[in-house]
Amino acid sequence: MADLHIVCELVASVFEVRVAVGDEVPQGGTVVLLESMKMEIPVLADRAGVVSEVRVSPGDVVQEGDVLVVLT
Fold first, then answer.
1. How many CB atoms neighbour CB 9 within 10 A?
2. Mean of pLDDT over the chain
3. How far is CA 10 from CA 27, 29, 48, 61, in A?
4. Which of 14, 40, 53, 68 could form a disulfide with 60 if both were Cys (CB 3.0 to 4.6 A apart)?
5. Model's pTM, two decimal places?
6. Sheet holding 30-36, edge to edge
7. With helix as H, strand as E and coil as C, how does the chain read?
């Protein structure tokens, strides 16, 4: 199965990273919490997998299309 790149869908700040490399993530599991306009926005996994990369840290500002987490 190909790697799943979980991408940002809006300009936001990374509020919390809820996964680490090696973690198993269920389909629909929250991997990152973003903050935009004082709202917390959960970023969910489209399918189950194991985290192979975390490309963001709390406090980072991310743009639309930026890869946040990679699942294998």
1. 12
2. 97
3. 21, 19, 23, 10
4. 14
5. 0.94
6. 39-44, 30-36, 12-17, 61-62
7. CCCEEEECCCCEEEEEECCCCCCEECCCCEEEEEEECCEEEEEECCCCEEEEEECCCCCCEECCCCEEEEEC
Alpha carbon distance 64, 43 (integer Å): 13
Which residues is 54 bridged to in the sheet?
Answer: 69
64: which 2 tokens? 């639309």
Burial (CB count <10 Å: 0-12, 13-18, 19+), residue 68: buried
Q: Does the pLDDT at position 1 exceed 90?
A: no
* Structure confidence by residue, pLDDT tens digits, 10-20: 999 999 999 99
Rounded-to-integer distance, Cα 31 and Cα 62, Å: 15
Say which residue the tokens 């194991």 belong to. Answer: 50
